[in-house]
Amino acid sequence: MNTETKVSEIQVIYHPCKMYEATLTTSSDVIAILRTVWDEGRIEMQEEVKVLLVNSSNAVIGVYNLSKGGITASLVDIRLILSVALKCLATGLILVHNHPSGNLNPSSADLSIVKKLKTACKLLDISLLDSIIITKESYTSFNDEGLL
């Protein structure tokens, strides 16, 4: 009887690509980058969540498209955010999502997920630098508003 046990092989591989030559210092820097990758045709129709990842110099590593939801909500999987951040060796991240309604005020769900994400990031020595709500016309930065 063959009792050989097989185990899945796990590899962690990172292939950096210098797609962005930007260093972030303000929330408007973040918005300038996100406007280049956001589908403006959907910003008032479907909620999306993106994560902007940075290194220790606040240079942009990349933008990760976390999820697309419906008109009023989208899934934010903290484990997935952190696994992406760890894989690309990010030391900081910025969570960004749109409100198709155009309302720039954070919902109670927004506040709750940011609190959970901040706690989880802290455990891994990753800085949650900001959480931003974006609309077609403007944005709200949790950091700028003292909500972080």
TrEMBL record:
The keyword Acyltransferase does not apply. CDD domains: MPN_DUF2466 (cd08071). Transmembrane segments: none annotated. GO terms for molecular function: metal ion binding; metallopeptidase activity. It comes from the Bacteria. GO terms for biological process: proteolysis. Pfam families: RadC. InterPro entries: MPN, RadC_JAB, UPF0758, UPF0758_CS. Residues 23-148 form the MPN domain. Keywords: Hydrolase, Metal-binding, Metalloprotease, Protease, Zinc. The keyword Acyltransferase does not apply. This is DNA repair protein.
